[in-house]
Amino acid sequence: MKKVYKVGVVGLGVVGQRLISAFQKNENTQITAVCDYNENLAKETAVECGDISYFLDYKELIQRKEIDFVYVAVPPAVHYEVVMFAFQHKKHVLCEKPLANSEEEAEAMLRGAEESGLIHAMHFPLVYEKAFATIEDLISKDSFGEIKRITLKMHFNQWPRPWQQTNWINSKKQGGFIREISPHYLQMILHFFGPVKEVKSYVDYPSNPELSEQAVIAMLSLENGVRVLIDGLAGQAENEEIAFTIHGENQSLSLLNWREVKLANKGGTWKDIKDSELVCSKGSLVEHFVKRLNNEQAFLVGFKEGLQVQRVLEQLIR
Ligand SMILES: NC(=O)c1ccc[n+]([C@@H]2O[C@H](COP(=O)([O-])OP(=O)(O)OC[C@H]3O[C@@H](n4cnc5c(N)ncnc54)[C@H](O)[C@@H]3O)[C@@H](O)[C@H]2O)c1
User: Fold this and answer.
1) Would the CB of 96 count as within 6 Å of ligand 1?
2) Ligand 1 neighbourhood includes 76 CB (under 6 angstroms)
3) Going edge to edge, which strands form the sheet with 271-273?
4) Burial bucket for residue 5 (CB in 10 Å: 0-12, 13-18, 19+)
5) If we measure between CA atoms, which residue out of 144, 76, 129 comes closest to residue 317?
6) Which atom of ligand 1 is the closest one to the Cα of 16?
7) Is the shortest distance between the CB of 58 and ligand 1 below 6 Å?
8) Which domains does the chain possess?
9) pLDDT, tens digit, 9 for 90 and up, residues 56-105
């Protein structure tokens, strides 16, 4: 019989609730305690999870002996303190992206992870999607040919979006679409195409110094010679569009609004690829995290990659 691992969830907002469902679906994980400093939310979530313990202070949750690992889903500026406290108390960690709120924090978190010898992983959901597996497959078959350019478009007619009613997501300190959206794609760029050599970035901020950016135009030069063009904008008339496009010499692929995949062959127009035509995904994050806990081979994005993403992120914002 496989072991059931006990998880403590810190941060019960939008994404915390999403992963709670994922843990509940996995027979090898059991949510044992939850924490949020919003007491009503903590209480309600604890009841929904089967009347489990709830805490307002993450330190109390982390110090519970029975907890095997902590999932950290608080806003980015709080990741560092929660994660470091978890390592000090010998808990494995699954942390939300971006890893931290600065390069220094991310470096210290990687050091903390390595020195503790504990498992450290991050929630980059695209990695477990069919689109990711499809890109991997096309690269392995050399279908793109020479990569001519990569583009990332992030356009939001409103930022934060109407459904994002949190107090941090439009703050200059830890919010904005560069910090919130681009890490998903920076992770893929670093994973598939290697390190970034240089970043040139032009960011426009509103007159209120507390608020996050309204626009960015940036260029990443990768060590392999490929250039990445980043075009981010908030407040334009048309609807939101997030498009990550790999322009190859022989074939190009575009991942539109997280899930829609389009392909174009040499001289051809973009064609929608049906979900059934995509390559199977690698499985779920929770499955892979459990595998790692069982000392089996697993596909996880660790803090080392989290730090690499953070470094590019901070250069984009600077
Ligand atoms: N992986 C993804 O696809 C994805 C998607 C959205 C957000 N995120 C990331 O997840 C994290 C959370 O985002 P969200 O949208 O769920 O935010 P949210 O604001 O909806 O939820 C955060 C929760 O943390 C609680 N909190 C804040 N500080 C706390 C503290 N010190 N102690 C206890 N509770 C505290 C808040 O009360 C809130 O309920 C962020 O890092 C964000 O970047 C990741």
Assistant:
1) yes
2) yes
3) 196-204, 215-222, 227-234, 147-156, 241-248, 251-256, 260-265, 271-273
4) buried
5) 76
6) 16
7) yes
8) 5-124+284-302 (3.40.50.720), 130-280 (3.30.360.10)
9) 999 999 999 999 999 999 999 999 999 999 999 999 999 999 999 999 99
